[in-house]
Specification:
Radius of gyration: 20 Å
Helix content: 25-40%
Distance between the termini: 35 Å
Length: about 375
């Protein structure tokens, strides 16, 4: 099947700007002018990006968005287009858990083993030390995914709470425990706790093949389109299943609403917001900014790593909080500068190699000071 190429189909919207933003010392994210927007479109065409969505947030409000390409053959991308944003699922799940904790339904420091034990670790005494807080700050001790291991078994590679290790498995484990404790399917908890209160009407973590309107269709390197939630090797996520770590479907507008609500701390107390923003872990070689790299011309954070569900860089007078996501056919990043509430969203639908090449160039246009930019440059041009 021929790849869908970006042509002249693109739309841009400028919403009402806030005229009294609180800039603090953070870099100001400006609304791209027509020349910058044209550069974005040229980059998308050069790297054969199938579908793209962009958002600029000022003082917690989405003030500019831009869409390019096609969400499916013959259907132009628009504000209604829903993207698979991969690991941008994790902050949504983290917010669900923190809001449940605020309402007294979950204890962030209670052993998850009271409510769920994976059969692979049923005889490991370390299972009783694992808590929701450790999962959210990526010190669960689990690998990212068990299927990356030779034995395909879930195991504690470190004792919980002792080492950083990015883990999708941890989020899946936490979701199972929360659902069991509250006797409610986890997607229902997300819907009632986050999606509905925030107004994220076009977002879903549960597979519902009857509700796949306006979803960007993934393509592989050969240009072959695949069904949503399916991979080139033929595996498809079963209808009715969900992931607490991957495959969120959402729009730029919905995710901007989500970031705005996080910025305001609407769903919980100031105490939990401070816990969310506390940097628990150092990501080591996975840091946002390698301060020892002479090629990185950005401020060096005083501290950087994971808070609860969000990656955070603390520059002293301001912080950056956000997350990235990537898979075989998608690349995404969403973040806020705080306390200003300015931020950026970029969603790309295209084969992984194309998105890796395009993302740093796109961020370089929309936010040249982005602390996520060095990571994308390193990924594109490894040493």
């Amino acid at each position: 099947m021929t790849a869908i190429l970006l042509g002249l189909t693109a739309c841009t919207t400028v919403d009402r700007p806030n005229t009294t933003p609180n800039r603090a010392a953070a870099p100001a994210v400006t609304i791209p002018d027509p020349e910058a927007t044209a550069r974005l479109d040229a980059i998308l065409r050069e790297h054969r990006i199938i579908t793209a969505g962009f958002g600029v947030i000022r003082s917690g409000e989405l003030v500019w968005s831009h869409y390019a390409g096609e969400e499916s053959p013959g259907v132009t991308a628009s504000a209604q287009t829903r993207f698979n944003v991969a690991s941008l699922t994790k902050p949504v799940v983290a917010e669900t858990v923190m809001r449940l904790a605020y309402n007294g339904k979950i204890d962030l420091d209670e052993p998850l083993s009271y409510y769920w034990v994976d059969p692979d670790v049923a005889h490991d005494p370390r299972r009783h030390a694992l808590t929701a807080r450790q999962v959210l700050n990526h010190t669960s001790g689990f690998p990212n995914w068990r299927f990356f291991r030779a034995d395909r078994k879930l195991t504690f590679e470190h004792a919980p709470g002792t080492h950083y290790g990015y883990s999708g498995e941890g989020f899946e484990y936490l979701a199972r425990a929360a659902a069991n404790k509250l006797k409610t399917p986890f997607p229902d908890l997300v819907q009632k706790t986050v999606f509905a209160p925030i107004g994220m009407q076009d977002s879903a973590i549960e597979v519902d093949r009857s509700q796949l309107q306006h979803v960007a269709r993934p393509q592989d390197d050969s240009g072959t389109s695949h069904a949503v939630y399916c991979r080139p090797e033929g595996w498809c996520r079963p209808n009715g299943s969900y992931s607490a770590a991957d495959d969120l479907l959402t729009t730029v507008r919905d995710y901007a609403r989500f970031l705005a609500d996080v910025h305001r701390g609407t769903g919980y107390s100031a105490t939990i917001a401070r816990e969310r923003d506390h940097i628990y872990t150092d990501r080591g070689s996975e840091r946002m900014i390698d301060c020892g790299n002479a090629d990185v011309h950005l401020p060096c954070p005083q501290k950087q790593g994971f808070g609860l569900g969000f990656e955070i860089a603390d520059f002293g007078s301001y912080q950056v909080m956000g997350h990235t996501g990537s898979d075989w056919a998608e690349q995404s990043v969403a973040y806020l500068y705080r306390p200003s509430g300015d931020g950026v969203i970029v969603f790309l639908n295209a084969p992984f190699v194309s998105t890796v090449q395009a993302m740093p160039e796109l961020l370089g246009v929309i936010d040249p000071a982005s602390p996520f930019l060095p990571r994308y440059l390193a990924q594109r041009d490894p040493p």
